[in-house]
Every structure is written in C-alpha cells, then in structure tokens.
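<instruction>
Derive structure tokens from the sequence
<data>
Labelled lines for chain and fold
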Amino acid sequence: MSYTVEVKRSERRSISLEIQPDGSVLVRAPLRMSMPRVRAFVERHRVWIERRLQALQAQPPVERLSEAELAALKKAASAVFSERAAFFAPRLGVRYQRLTVRCQKSKWGSCSGKGNLSFNCLLLLAPPEVLDYVVVHELCHLLEMNHSPRFWALVESILPDCAERRRWLREHGAALLARVY
C-alpha cells in the first residue's frame, strides 16, 4: 500500500502520527529529531497506518457540509459545549476562562495555559458521549497540562469508559473531518 507522508516539525517533545481525510499521513515531530528516527518511527507504525488507511477507504463517501450547514453547526455547538463544560467543570473543581468553537482540521479540543478552552464544532456530529469525553479531557488539562498517568486517571474518574469513547473518535474521527475538508 502506498501513501504520502508529510513531516511537520515544531517545538513539541513527542512524535505523533495522523491519518488525514485525504489518505495522507501526517507526522508531527520535534525540531531536533533526525529524519532517520522519524522514518524509523513511521516504519514501526506501518501496520497501524495501513490498517487505518484500509478502514478509511472502506468507509462510504461522506456528504460534505455546505457553508450554511457549517455556520448552523458552529452556532449550535457553541451552546452545547458551553452547557457540557458548565456541567463537568464543578465535578472536577475547575474554572475555565473562555470557551470558543471552531471548525478545525486536526484537533478536537484544546486547553491553553490561561484556561481557555476550544472545541471542534464537528464533534456535534459524534455521539454525545464522545463530545462529553472531549470536554472532560480538556477540562482535566486545567489540572494536569500533560497526558501523564495522573491525567488519564483524572479523566477516568469522571468517565470510567473514557477508553471506549476515545476509541470511537480514533476510528470515526477522519470521517467527521471529511465532512468539511
């Protein structure tokens, strides 16, 4: 199976792989990581990449959202994310500053060091429990700005089935992104 691999470098500490809706592979790597190490990482994950690409090809073609549908989705998503964040924040004992909703190409959510939350409007097309998982995930970053075992224990304390919700997003997320890109 052939596929295109694009490498994006940044000040990050770890390396990651993403399968893009168009079937290309995006590798996010630290600035100082050598290309031989990047290639070795991709090769070690070749089976995973090929499985994901096969799953992407097996999915039926998706209907793209119109500009009007996307605008309506963003508006509805803003209310839903505000309500869900307000529901879960007290359970974690956290407060966030600002909440924004965007249509993003690769991120489902983010949490800034200043306590601002951002969510992808396309999550409104996912099952509600998946949307809740992303909200809880980002709220947990207000307490742990990392993905350490403590962070995952915190997420799991609120959502004991978080692994299933996360799995759904990994398996179906590309199809959601394909509705726009």
Observations:
- The mean pLDDT is 93.
- Strands lie at 5-10, 16-19, 25-30, 99-102, 109-111, 117-120.
- Residues 18 and 154 are 25 Å apart (CA to CA).
- Helices lie at 35-44, 46-58, 67-92, 128-140, 149-158, 162-177.
